[in-house]
Design a protein that fits this description.
The complex is a heterodimer of chains A (72) and B (341). In chain A, 58% of the residues lie in helices and 0% in strands. Chain A is mainly alpha-helical and 72 residues long. Chain A is globular, with a radius of gyration of 11 Å. Chain B is an alpha/beta fold and 341 residues long. Chain B has 2 domains: 2-160, 3-Layer(aba) Sandwich (Peroxisomal Thiolase, Chain A, domain 1), CATH 3.40.47.10; 167-326, Peroxisomal Thiolase, Chain A, domain 1 (3-Layer(aba) Sandwich), CATH 3.40.47.10. In chain B, strands 5-4-6-7-1-16 form a 6-stranded mixed beta sheet, with helices on both faces. In chain B, strands 8-15-14-13 form a 4-stranded mixed beta sheet, sandwiched between helices. Chain B has a two-stranded antiparallel sheet with strand order 2-3. The chains are: A mainly alpha (72), B alpha/beta (341).
């Protein structure tokens, strides 16, 4: 998954947010970054890449770039 | 002699609660849930579901075993199934037992019923699943409350002279290391009400619960389901020597829309007939499978449903799946809780 694909999926499928999302966006600044998003992200990544993310790794991420680093 | 499902009905509490419009409702597609009244127990719902079968002409006298699946029994003891024998007017010669399982419980019940029938211990098993998780969930836990609804289902499994199995490919799995991922910690023998201090938790979104309430780690359950469900689908197909295309319908535990959609992708079933409908119920735990089967048959009829794959997964952690032949099933509920005409 490249950066652009990741950003599109994150914004539309996972967060379903009106906010502008870039690789530099701080996750805590996104209103929709909550437990529902965690669960969706885990599922999306597993289905798209086969990678298994755990809750702790996601919680440790501070920016969108950090999340992408877990996924790419 | 083969065990076949012959009759099926479900029952929902009268109280219907709508989830607020918003992101959670959009993703889960849970529009409303039915919630038991304060004085209404899982067994009350089970009685009403079973009475639908009797009202349709099923003879009470022929039931010779009742299985009751719940995690909300009437009492620590006696067994709720024994009380149900009396309340339903079943013969005193019938066997009765409770078993405690959640989302995998319906398939376990079908497996137990098949075992009882095909070893000659019973001829007509009444399988009742009933659940009231709403009583365990804290009303201030906005992350969990909108996901679960209450309900009950009654399934009759009978001995039938047939060439092929009516319940086949039974596959079970258990991982107790995940017990704490979906749990009501207090109230059993390990942490009794009387001696366990109440511990309160509020997450950063303001969701509040105590150790007497239901806790679910959604991300752990998602990882678990994505791991075990695709593997179990393959295992069931291998056991029954069927291919994915031979399956007339896939009816998995109806947890919520987006989880089921991801599971459909992960199991490579995007082009397959696949049921995904929680709109009027939410997650009804052990009742989600029979409710979904009823609705699916209401929509598509039973005539061609020779190979329907069922799969339950959740609390335990526990999972189970099988293939059922539904061509002999009469339904008495279906279509968003409405009675078929």
């Amino acid at each position: 998954m490249n950066e652009q694909e990741f950003l599109t999926k994150l914004k539309e499928d996972i967060l379903d947010t009106e906010q502008t999302i870039s690789m530099d966006t701080v996750l805590q600044d996104i209103e929709e970054w909550d437990s529902l998003s965690f669960v969706s992200l885990i599922a999306m990544v597993k289905v798209a890449t086969g990678k298994k993310l755990d809750h702790k790794a996601i919680q440790a991420a501070e920016t969108v770039q950090d999340l992408y680093n877990l996924v790419k | 002699m083969q065990a076949y499902i012959t009759h099926l009905a479900y029952e929902l509490p009268a109280q219907r609660v709508e989830n607020p419009a918003g992101r959670l409702r959009k993703k889960t597609k849970i529009k409303a849930r039915h919630i038991a009244a304060a004085d209404e127990t899982a067994s009350d719902l089970a009685v009403r579901a079973a009475e639908k079968l009797f009202a349709a002409g099923v003879a009470r006298e022929k039931v010779d075993f009742v299985l009751f699946c719940t995690q909300s029994p009437d009492y620590p003891l006696p067994t709720t199934a024994c009380i149900l024998q009396q309340r339903l007017g079943l013969p005193k010669s019938c066997g009765a037992l409770d078993y405690n399982l959640g989302c995998s419980g319906y398939i376990y019940g079908l497996g137990l019923a098949r075992g009882l029938i095909e070893t000659g211990q019973a001829r007509c098993v009444l399988l009742l699943t009933a659940e009231t998780y709403s009583k365990y969930i804290n009303p201030k836990d906005g992350a969990t409350l909108p996901l679960f609804g209450d309900g009950a289902a009654a399934t009759l499994i009978e001995a039938v002279e047939a060439d092929h199995a009516g319940i086949d490919g039974l596959t079970y799995g258990t991982d107790g290391s995940g017990a704490e991922q979906l749990i009501v910690p207090v109230g059993g023998a390990r942490q009794p009400y009387e001696t366990t201090p109440v511990q309160e938790t509020t997450d950063k979104y303001g969701n509040y619960r105590t150790n007497r309430n239901l806790y679910m780690s959604g991300s752990s359950i998602m990882n678990f389901a994505l791991e075990v469900v695709p593997r179990s689908v393959e295992e069931i197909l291998r056991k029954t020597q069927l291919s994915k295309a031979d399956i007339d319908y896939y009816v998995f535990h109806q947890a919520n829309h987006f989880m089921l959609a991801y599971l459909q992708q992960e199991c490579d079933l995007l082009d397959a007939p696949y049921w995904n409908d929680v709109e009027e119920y939410g997650n009804t735990v052990s009742c989600s499978e029979p409710i979904a089967v009823c609705d699916m048959l209401h929509a598509h009829g039973s005539a061609s449903m020779r190979h329907v794959m069922l799969m339950g997964f959740g609390v335990g952690l526990s999972w189970a799946g099988c293939i059922v032949n539904l061509t002999r099933v009469n339904i008495y509920s279906g279509g968003d809780g409405q009675q078929p005409s």
